[in-house]
Fold this sequence. Notes:
Nucleotidyltransferase, domain 5; five-stranded mixed sheet; alpha/beta
Amino acid sequence: MARLLGIDFGDKRFGLALSDPTAMFASPLSVVEGEEPLRKTLTKLFAEEEIEAIVLGVPLNKDGSPGSKAKQVEAFKERLEREFSKPVHLWDERYTTAQAEGLLRRAGLSGRDRASKIDKVAAQILLQSFLDYRRRTP
């Protein structure tokens, strides 16, 4: 079975998470600064791992409507699909950063340590929620 890659989209940083080969569990992978370094990282990941699809976090408002960055994320989705020829699923990322912050704080990480990990943990949360949904939905 193939893995899924989760991406937490940001203005400066991208958090990455990867599922296990059975697509049951998501693990935080890394944080990449900038779109060009992200392309290089993705190229390497796709060469090394059997990744079937990307799950890209899209910012939605509390009411479920697209947030202010949704158009940016949709344009990024199209670039990813063209460049890597992989399906990209948009997935609601509401509250993932707050959840990641809470998890890291409860784990006792200092502010600096939390800041360096928050994006990849947010990517893990959004990917895990996608995996859970996919398992529950035929």
